[in-house]
Design goal:
The structure holds 2 protein chains of 2 kinds. By secondary structure, chain A is of the alpha/beta class. Helices cover about 30% and strands about 20% of the residues of chain A. Chain A is built from 12 helices and 16 strands. An 8-stranded mixed β-sheet of chain A has the order 5-4-6-1-7-10-2-11, sandwiched between helices. In chain A, strands 13-14-15-16 form a 4-stranded antiparallel β-sheet, with helices on one face. A two-stranded parallel ribbon of chain A has the order 3-12. Chain A is globular. The termini of chain A are far apart. Chain B is globular. The chains are: A alpha/beta, B alpha/beta. The interface between A and B is medium-sized, with 34 and 19 residues.
Chain lengths: ~400, ~280
């Protein structure tokens, strides 16, 4: 394959896209790509927030491996490094501080834009997708001009769906024309409701959901712009695109908001849509797959030797995909917390079942996602499958500490 | 000047080509703007120093004086830089204006690490704080902190442009200083904004890599601050710039280590972004 584009949309819930929610008008452009897509109906992220999710997306590894330091471990191998050493041009454009060059994520990229040197507005603390697209366009022109079309791997990350939810009028109108909120009102919702994780006012939470959905419409247009950019330069026909997200967002489903250290479906179920230029007709895949599989798939597409260090598997051909279950792990308190107060949280999904372990209260949960997709009935004390599911997680808890101790001894 | 590096004839010719490109950008700027509408930003560091030297070369070609030059007095300078600046401002006849945010300095009682009360600042400074989303009642006076940096540098820069009616300002930025700079242009027009007059930023040395820069210094015997000879690779404020090594700057591993790794400003900016995204 000539070129690959990985498009990740921060905090995008799987059910926020029309093609997954089976609803029109949530994301018309992305939905329209269907006929040339493989749509994964059971894709998972390895973590519920950016820091926990991106090691899988870009290095096919788990968050808690390689130590707890903020900076990306030198021992992780990034997809950019693998591709660059094979002569493929690598370029990254994003605006998320957690995956910035400061934390070491710029390894292996010929071009790495993380927006840290640009000023942003308090009310929109990232570079908008439309601006990111402009930078991509400039880079594309330069790349095509200088190299006469050498293969590239482009990673683009949009932040527009991420809080604070401050959509423009025209997008809000598409979701709820009757809603009239000023920018101040929206910022107040952000500071009073989202930041405080205050779910007691159901109306406020419903409003937030609408603002969020308006941002999804907005980002859908930027995706359209990106496709157009590639087709105008006549390279879309030689490019495969992966559209996915790092995690979802909560709107009160389990008593919270935003995306904290929890492993419920609203956070770890992610959209995963692969657009291929020569596909004729939608293919749906129900295998349990993970964002861990993205890097190995890209390696496969570029016809390179499989990378031993990558822990996922190539998604293609889909009928040969063998992995049985998916894992996820994170620290349960996101952001700042006292040193030593970092407790792990894990999940494992296999078949219809999902088990979650929270180290903080030594608490286990087990859900049947077919009969209980909202994860409200904990079956851990009654299900005959509970022990075997728990056994999948047990060896993984604190495994990194044990490994470090072994290495020291 | 003791430290020296030998540059081959071939390499010297390569550097000469890079210098010519920079001079062309400068000549273009001289055509575009009136001489009194131009200004140069200087820090005493290696990048703005090369930029100044190049502009000066073009000035001599054209028989004009060096344009107004501004240097920002952060209140936390290395003595070696001050010395260097004083020497060359005289030797090169540079019309230098030292610009300081006197209001902030006064509120900080001219003492590093003291606490500045937002209420002690004038309207302009308070407006700037509001604009960048800082709503605290006080901040520590540390030049490389995000808030401090903004007030001490950005406000002062904008006031200088306004006061002198500057339309074009030379900056010593390079593409390889930071991965995000690749999209910068030689000429960047900035529309008038809140408290910032419209102006064009001119970057004649964008295309120089760090290595190109040092080789050019040695090829043409251009003077530079002695601190670079003892391990400093990038010079910011004195208290927040660390020496990463004791080897002279041009002998360090330029390709594989970060040039600005010794500076704290990036971390502050990062934390600010995280806070605005709801993460703290």
């Amino acid at each position: 394959m000539k070129n690959v584009v990985l498009l990740t949309i921060d905090a995008l819930r799987k059910d926020a896209l029309g093609c997954y929610a089976k609803t029109d008008n949530l994301s018309p452009f992305i939905d329209s790509l269907e006929e040339k897509c493989v749509r994964f109906n059971n894709a998972h992220s390895t973590g519920p927030y950016t820091e926990a999710a991106f090691p899988a997306l870009l290095s096919s590894s788990f968050y808690l491996e390689y130590g707890r330091q903020k900076r990306l471990s030198e021992k992780r191998l990034l997809i950019s490094e693998v591709l660059k050493r094979s002569g493929i041009t690598t370029a990254a454009f994003h605006s998320n501080p957690f995956i910035s060059g400061y934390f070491g994520w710029n390894r292996g990229w010929d071009v790495f834009y993380d927006s840290l040197t640009d000023e942003v507005d308090e009310r929109m603390p990232y570079i908008k997708a439309s601006e990111i697209n402009k930078k991509v366009s400039k880079w594309l022109a330069s790349h095509l001009g200088k190299t006469n079309g050498r293969p590239f791997f482009l990673w683009v990350h949009y932040m527009d769906v991420h809080e604070p939810y401050v959509p423009e009028r025209k997008y809000l109108d598409l979701v709820d024309p009757g809603m009239h909120l000023s920018l101040d009102d929206m910022m107040k919702l952000f500071s009073e409701v989202v930041v405080k994780r205050s779910v007691s006012d159901a109306h406020a939470v419903a409003t937030l959901r609408k603002l969020y959905q308006a941002h999804v419409r907005e980002v859908d247009e930027s995706v359209k712009e990106l496709f157009l950019m590639l087709s105008e330069r006549d390279i879309l026909k030689d490019t495969k695109l992966i559209i996915t997200s790092d995690h979802g967002d909560e709107f009160g489903e389990h008593g919270g908001l935003s995306h904290d250290g929890k492993m419920y479906c609203e956070l770890v179920n992610v959209p995963m849509i692969i657009w291929e230029p020569d596909r004729n007709g939608l293919m749906e895949c129900d295998h349990l797959v993970s964002t861990l599989d993205i890097a190995p798939t890209i390696v496969h597409w570029f016809d390179l030797e499989p990378v031993a260090q990558f822990e996922g598997f190539s998604l293609f051909p889909t009928e040969d995909y063998h992995a049985e279950g998916v894992f996820g792990e994170a620290v349960d308190k996101r952001g700042r917390h006292e040193k030593g107060d970092e407790k792990e949280i894990h999940y494992y999904r296999e078949g219809n079942l999902k088990v979650i372990y929270s180290e903080r209260n030594d608490c286990w949960e087990l859900y049947d996602l077919v009969s209980d997709p909202r994860e409200t009935e904990n079956l851990v004390d009654t299900s005959p499958k509970a022990e075997q599911m728990k056994d999948k997680i047990r060896p993984r808890v604190r495994r990194n500490e044990r490994k470090l101790q072994r290495d020291d001894n | 000047m003791a430290p020296k590096k030998e540059i081959s004839e071939k390499r010297k010719r390569q550097c000469q080509k890079l210098v010519e490109i920079a001079k062309d950008v400068t000549r273009k700027a001289f055509e575009k703007f009136k001489h009194e509408e131009l200004a140069i930003t200087w820090t005493g560091g290696k990048d703005s120093g090369l930029c100044l030297w190049i502009v000066r070369q073009v000035c001599r070609e054209q028989g004009v004086g060096v344009p107004k030059t501004m240097i920002i007095g952060e209140g936390d300078e290395f003595e070696e830089i001050e010395e260097f600046v004083n020497t060359y401002k005289t030797e090169w006849n540079v019309p230098l204006e030292v610009c300081r945010n006197e209001n902030v300095l006064k509120a900080a009682k001219y003492t590093l690490n003291s606490i500045v009360n937002v209420n002690d600042l004038d309207t302009r400074n308070r407006q700037e704080l509001k604009r960048i989303g800082f709503d605290g009642l006080e901040f520590p006076f540390e030049a490389e902190s995000y808030v401090g940096n903004h007030l001490m540098k950005t406000v002062v820069f904008n006031q200088f442009l306004e006061r002198n009616n500057i339309k074009g300002v030379f900056q010593g930025l390079r593409w390889d200083e930071h991965p995000s700079r690749f999209s910068d242009d030689y000429f960047e027009y900035k529309e008038a904004g809140d408290f910032a007059p419209e102006h064009t930023r001119i970057r004649p040395i964008l295309h120089f890599t760090e290595k190109d820069l040092w080789d050019t210094y040695f090829a043409f015997d251009i003077p530079f601050c002695s601190l670079y000879g003892v391990g400093y690779r990038s010079l910011g404020a004195k208290t927040t710039t660390d020496k990463r090594s004791s080897a002279p700057a041009w002998e360090q591993d330029l390709e594989n280590t970060e040039e600005r790794g010794g500076r704290r400003q990036d971390k502050e900016q990062l934390m600010d972004r995280m806070r605005k995204l709801g993460y703290m």
